[in-house]
TrEMBL record:
Domain FHA: 70-134
Protein name according to UniProt: FHA domain-containing protein
Record's keyword terms, sorted: Signal
SUPFAM superfamilies: SMAD/FHA domain
One Pfam family in the UniProt entry: FHA
Keyword Signal: yes
Gene source species: Symbiodinium necroappetens
UniProt xrefs under InterPro entries: Cell_Proc_Reg/RNA_Proc, FHA_dom, SMAD_FHA_dom_sf
Keyword Signal in annotation: yes
Signal peptide (from-to): 1-16
Length: 163
């Protein structure tokens, strides 16, 4: 019981990481509405929470902040990352632990009001919102309280929450 309460407290009080603005080139064409939001226009601050089933590790919380987009892709070891950079493969902003995920799996998009959208980049094993597989290359609104998975739910899943 004490371990569960401690885990819950760490999850609730762990500081969210805000992704810093980037000069990276997006891995796909962005919709016109995908922009850095002005904090005065944001209706609700949202954060992406990574959960690892069966783990004692606290959930990681991330915010896009003033980023218009962030790339999700398979985590690479240092040698793999160096090889990918040489080949021109974009490095993910949010690394996915699932070995079935693609190097450039999906992209998180943000509009001027801070609403979050998810777009699968044609991954082999899919991107899922609330258990429904997304059509590749189409942005779908990711609403607070909704879970997203990338290729396999047993490794990790992500939830969008109000901050």
């Amino acid at each position: 019981m004490h371990l569960v309460v401690t885990h819950l407290m760490l999850t609730l009080y762990a500081k969210a990481t805000t992704l810093m603005p980037s000069e990276k080139v997006p891995p796909c064409e962005l919709p016109l509405w995908c922009v850095m939001p002005n904090p005065r226009d944001v209706e609700k601050v949202l954060e992406i929470v990574r959960h690892v089933p069966g783990s004692n590790v606290p959930s990681k919380r991330m915010r896009l902040g003033r980023r218009a987009w962030a790339l999700l892709g398979r985590r690479l070891h240092e040698a793999q990352a160096a090889e990918a950079r040489r080949a021109g493969v974009p490095e993910p902003d949010i690394g996915l632990a699932c070995p079935l995920s693609s190097k450039a799996h999906a992209i998180v998009l943000q509009n001027w009001m801070g609403k979050i959208f998810l777009k699968d980049l044609g991954s082999a094993h899919g991107t899922f919102l609330s258990g429904v597989r997304l059509n590749p290359h189409e942005p779908f609104e990711w609403q607070a309280g909704t879970k997203a998975l990338f290729a396999d739910a047993s490794t990790e899943f992500f939830e969008l929450r109000a901050a």
